[in-house]
Specification:
With 453 residues, the chain is an alpha/beta fold. It has a domain of 255 residues: Rossmann fold. It contains 19 helices and 15 strands. The strands form 4 sheets. It has a 7-stranded mixed beta sheet with strand order 1-4-5-15-10-11-14, with helices on both faces. The chain has a 4-stranded parallel beta sheet with strand order 8-7-6-9, sandwiched between helices. Helix 4 crosses helix 16. The chain is globular, with a radius of gyration of 21 Å. The termini are far apart. The model has no long low-confidence stretch (mean pLDDT 95). It binds pyridoxal-5'-phosphate (PLP). The site of pyridoxal-5'-phosphate has 19 residues, from helix 13 and helix 17.
């Protein structure tokens, strides 16, 4: 009998997160203040984040203990299984060996809960009673809603109005876990009231929702703000993915030739690959290839510039050096909601500059073609975001078929697509179209980048 999945037991769960800042040849340049553009001080962040997360953001300790209280909750679904996609390999008729790390087993259905639990815990420990955040498609809002419920905190979610109207199921899930969800722009903040005065049916944007959540945070005592991707401490919390995968690959008796993950802000990809990138840096596995896959609709790594930019449209959040399409980026009409962000994690940007990882962008028609091929062989219907990693995996597996090589490919399966069936419906009904972010828009956006000295 050939194994299809490799399971670890609860006692094998990682007890520490891996912090790549300890091993990077060059650390990412420090954050700048959104208004003065001077170096950001930890105290600048204290209005929105608790001290322990601020410390983690800048820490250069290689290993950081996972608190017992956090590990206890992660145990609900962790360790997550690593699958060998034997049926899909057969369907593709490839000699490649394909593995996938399945994060869709979490209650919220994606990897995002790994950091939501940790963030809620540190906030609770610091005496906070409430967290505020924004959500686009709703994945992050769902994760934080459950995390707040676990630690008996209130959760306020500003959900981009178009998604609020078009995707009621994620809102219902958040409410099931006890969160309060309002469509953004909302009448509850100054920012929201101003926009609603101009247009009572304003459809909202992630940038606006971030502004509302930040205003909510600084105007409500006992409240802090929580971020689902991009920043260092989020990638840190996600390294449980890669640390488990390393153990599981050891059990399989293999080391990957290629690692693949989809990238929005970079947290599931970072979580999977950073513990392996360590092996590239220390030259124990110099030939490992690590591929970051993004959407053609938000190609920050493949078509953006490496420059300082604001993390949010409203220019309220820190300025970071990263690959960016410009903070004025307007989300394109594609179905990979979680990949539509103008920038990318500063850690991943540094790795790309150092050529420790590579990047590629995919069109959505090819992405769904691959996701359907995968679903028909393996059964799992993946999130449209995850499907980008599946596309790149399929291309590498088909290249192996050409060359006759049996490379070991591992991809990150960040979440399930049960709330994204409308996207599958559009693809199957022939209604889906490709969209490419225009290069001219990036050139235009360059004029509006902060002038950091
Ligand atoms: C949010 C999300 C992503 C993209 O975010 P990253 O921070 O880049 O991981 C990818 N997959 C799923 C399932 C998501 O919910």
């Amino acid at each position: 009998m050939k194994d299809v999945k490799i399971q670890l037991s609860e006692k094998d769960m990682p007890r520490q997160w891996y912090n790549i800042l300890a091993d990077l040849p060059k650390p990412p340049p420090p954050y700048r203040h959104p208004v003065t553009l001077e170096l950001m001080k930890p105290s600048d962040l204290q209005a929105v984040f608790p001290d322990e997360l601020i410390a983690q953001e800048a820490s250069t300790e290689r290993w950081i203990d996972i608190p017992e209280e956090v590990a206890d909750v992660l145990k609900i679904w962790r360790p997550a299984p690593l699958y060998r996609a034997r049926r899909w390999e057969k369907a593709l008729d490839t000699p490649a060996k394909i593995y996938y790390k399945w994060e869709g087993v979490s209650p919220a259905g994606s990897h995002k809960l790994n950091t939501a639990i940790a963030q809620a815990y540190y906030n609770k420990k610091a005496g906070q009673t409430r967290l505020a955040t924004e959500t686009g498609a709703g994945q992050w809002g769902c994760a934080l809603s459950y995390a707040c419920q676990v630690f008996d905190m209130e959760c306020k979610v500003y959900m981009v109005r178009v998604s609020y109207n078009q995707k009621p199921y994620r809102r219902i899930l958040m409410e099931t876990w006890g969160a309060t969800v309002v469509p953004s722009p909302s009448p509850e903040t100054n920012v929201g009231r101003q926009l609603l005065a101009q247009d009572p049916n304003h459809s909202g944007s992630l940038g606006i929702a971030i502004s509302e959540a930040l205003e909510d945070t600084v105007t409500h005592p006992g409240t802090k703000y929580s971020l689902g991707s991009v920043v260092n401490h989020v990638l840190l919390h996600q390294t449980v993915i890669g640390l488990e995968t390393k153990q599981q690959m050891e059990i399989a008796g293999e080391y990957p030739d290629i690692l693949i993950g989809c990238v929005g802000g970079g947290s599931n990809f970072g979580g999977l690959v950073l513990p392996f990138v360590k092996d590239k840096i220390d030259k124990s596995h110099p030939n490992l290839r690590v591929i970051a896959v993004e959407s053609m609709a938000a190609p920050s790594m493949t078509k953006g510039v490496y420059a300082y930019d604001w993390g949010d449209t409203a220019k309220m959040g820190p300025v970071a050096k990263m690959h960016t399409l410009g903070h004025g980026y307007v989300p394109a009409p594609v179905h990979a909601g979680g990949l539509r962000y103008h920038g990318v994690s500063p850690i991943l940007s540094t790795l790309l500059e150092e050529k420790l990882i590579e990047s590629r962008a995919c069109h959505q028609l090819g992405v769904f073609e691959a996701a359907i091929s995968f679903a028909r062989a393996e059964g799992f219907v993946m999130a449209p975001e995850t499907a980008h990693a599946i596309r790149a995996t399929m291309d590498e597996a088909l290249a192996c078929k050409e060359s006759g090589e049996s490379k070991v490919i591992v991809f990150g399966a960040s979440g399930h697509g049960h709330f994204d069936l409308a996207a599958y419906d559009a693809y199957l009904g022939g209604k889906l179209q490709d969209y490419e972010y225009p290069a001219e828009k990036v050139q235009e956006a360059l004029k509006d980048l902060p002038k950091v000295k």
